[in-house]
Amino acid sequence: MSKRVEERTLALTVDGRAVGAREGSTVLEACCEAGVHIPTLCHDPRLAPFGACRLCVVEIEGMRGYPTSCTTMAADGMVVATDTERLRQMRTTIIELLLSDHDVDCLTCESNAACGLQDLAYELGIEHERYGGDRHGPPALGDDPLIARDYSKCISCGRCVRICAEVQGCSVYGWQGRGFDSLPMTPYELPLGESGCEYCGQCVSTCPVGALTDRISRFAGRPWETGKVRTICGYCGVGCTVEYRVREGRIVGASAPVGVGVNGGNLCAKGRYGWSFVHHPDRLTVPLVRKGGELVSSTWEEAIGLVAAGLAKARDAHGPDAVGGLASAKCSNEENYLFQKLLRAGIGTHNVDHCARL
User: Fold this and answer.
1) What's the domain range around 38?
2) 201 in the same domain as 177
């Protein structure tokens, strides 16, 4: 019998108070779990530590310089300072430099009030642009019906490049150019539709600014005008958690809360963009039965009764193998189990298939 290995808890001192941390966690993770705020733009808990934005720098007793907390492993007895005057000055300078090369059109930006750069500028009390100079200034790309790309707002955090490679395994984005001219771009600057993109929207979900946004949600409702409804995606049996942005009773966008559900914040193309059918005028909302050659509205009791009678008639007239069933990936595993049980035990046929096999 194997013995359970107990997880060791590390003892740290953060800003003068004792904090416990999981062994193997980073300083940033330890602080977040203890409720200590450390600003960051390049960090996403779904991704490997990167240390690009340098906003999460801290002071650690006995360690030279200002290490990034997202790449520094927590250690027993570590003494950490996260909010000194020197650290605030460094973070302020970083944000000011990012703003000097950022198209600040917050009034019409789709990420207004949901922008990491905007939040940190407010947190640090930055009211004016202190640095001038050249800007990237590439035009917003309108070459895709689902994902809008505006590189004038890109802060080169690398999250889109990393999530496409590390989580989705597609590597559609890569770094183009060097130094100031470096930008995350598709191969040979191809449109997304020609680059191998799966339209999962992972890049949009991780972008901390307005460089990547959902085009189908543009101008449909700003964050403070919409509510969030959490539910389970109905497209397959995985059971991904999805949050719909809703305004005036209509869905205007979809996302997934990070760290919640079996998907942990990730969605496929159907889950993120396949919700428009909900409001389609041709969507069936009640069962229909054919009467006098016309399809008319019916109750579920009447419709199910007609289906049962039709199946029994076909079985009695031509035998059980005259009946077949096609299960749905939108049903749960339990529902599909009952469906095949109905076909095999109730009707007596093994003609059962499933659309997920196609």
Assistant:
1) 9-83
2) yes
3-state secondary structure 122-138: HHCCCCCCCCCCCCCCC
Neighbours of 49 (CB within 10 A): 17
User: What's the rounded Cα separation, in Å, for the pair 62 and 43?
Assistant: 25
- Whether 312 maps to a domain, the answer reads yes
Dihedral sign for Cα 49, 51, 54, 60, please. positive
> What angle separates helix 116-123 from helix 85-99, to the nearest 10 degrees?
130
In this structure, are residues 326 and 349 in contact, taking their beta carbons and an 8 Å threshold?
no
Cβ distance 254 to 245 under 8 Å? yes
97 occurs within a structural domain: no
| Each residue's pLDDT tens digit, 123-140 | 999 998 888 878 876 778
Name the token pair of 159.
Answer: 């999250």
pLDDT in tens, 233-248: 988 878 899 999 999 9
Residue 349 belongs to a domain: yes
In a domain, 3, yes or no: no
What is d(CA 88, CA 97) in angstroms, rounded to the nearest whole number?
A: 14
